[in-house]
Amino acid sequence: MAEQIRRNDPCPCGSGKKYKKCHGLLNQTNINQLIDEELEQVIGRFYSLVPVPGHVKQNAQLFVEWERRLSPYYDRETIHSQAVDYMYLIQEPEFWSMHVRNSSEKTVRPGVQDVLSGWEHPVSLFGVVESINESAARLRDVFGSGSYTLDIPKDMELSVGEALFGHFLKDNRKEDRVMLMNGLAFLESGNPDVLHAVEQLRKKKLHLDQREFLKLYSLDIYEMIGRDEAVLPLISDEEKGRTDSVKEGSDVLSLVGQFLSENEVESTGLEEKTGHFLEQVNPKARKPEGVAAGAIRFGQMAGLLEDLDLPKTRIAEHFDVSPSTVQKYADDMLKFHRVKAEA
């Protein structure tokens, strides 16, 4: 059996250099590739195990609330992914830590163990892209934890000025280097108002450590980004035209009026109140049906509709939207008019 060459042994080529400084370098790229592949498998295995069925039932209310708040801005799969990350990286991180420890014990590669040693505590960032050099981006964390370098995945496009919120893992093979753990919420506009609001919120809550802060405010941050970006799957020109028309409000009011007429429902100022909401709030919506359905539900909640004993699910079916979308816009309208009445 051939004797194994150690890194500090003389290179067998006779150059007089240590193996790690000579022919050992030729194998380094392949070794790093193997390490990267195994690390990706560690992450993949974790997401194949969660959410644990018992935990889903335990956190059912959490999923309902996240869908209610975020469904106007993100698709259901994205919301589910965000909620799972919150559950297992912020709310109850012990399951992730145990997974990392078990993976470290099973691997035979010291290089993998070395990287995993820094993985038990993921890094949660709201990072602004300050510069891009080849395939790496330099991120400044709005939460104030410093700056990091992110190796940009091949299927991701970033530009200077963008911001992203999500969870990362330290790659201690390089200084201040982080790897993407799962999905991200993008603030493509780099809206300074949103960045400032998040930064000020973190400063006001400096008495909380990072995990406690994110336990309380992760959902708010996702919602702030969503409101600014309306993060949704790519939409057609026809759907984009619908979104633009929501801003004008005419389609929403037309849909509300049509619903009331078809169902022979008398209203006391619903259309007027809906118009005021559209003018002053200018909601971002993928299609006007969502806002119109929310307006009908708001009319029920505010006692503006006579003889309309229709559950929220039936309203959602009529407008072909989700019940959470109906309730979201109804809550927005109710809050808007309460504030207006108190002013």
Name some characteristics of this structure:
five-stranded mixed beta barrel, Cyclin A, domain 1, OB fold (Dihydrolipoamide Acetyltransferase, E2P), 343 residues, elongated, alpha+beta
Provide structural commentary.
The chain contains 14 helices and five strands. The chain is of the alpha+beta class and 343 residues long. The protein has three domains: 88 residues, no CATH class; 108 residues, Beta Barrel (OB fold (Dihydrolipoamide Acetyltransferase, E2P)), CATH 2.40.50; 106 residues, Cyclin-like (Cyclin A, domain 1, Orthogonal Bundle). Strand 2 and strand 3 form a beta hairpin. Helix 3 crosses helix 4, helix 3 crosses helix 14 and helix 10 packs across helix 12. The radius of gyration is 26 Å and the shape is elongated. The termini are far apart. About 6% of the residues have low confidence.
Rounded mean pLDDT is 83
Question: Total helix count?
Answer: 14
CATH topology of the largest domain: OB fold (Dihydrolipoamide Acetyltransferase, E2P)
Residues in helices, as a percent range = 40-55%
Distance between the termini: 86 Å
Which CATH architecture of the largest domain is right?
Beta Barrel
Query: Count of DSSP E strands?
Result: 5
Pfam families: SEC-C
Organism: Bhargavaea ginsengi
Protein name: SEC-C motif-containing protein
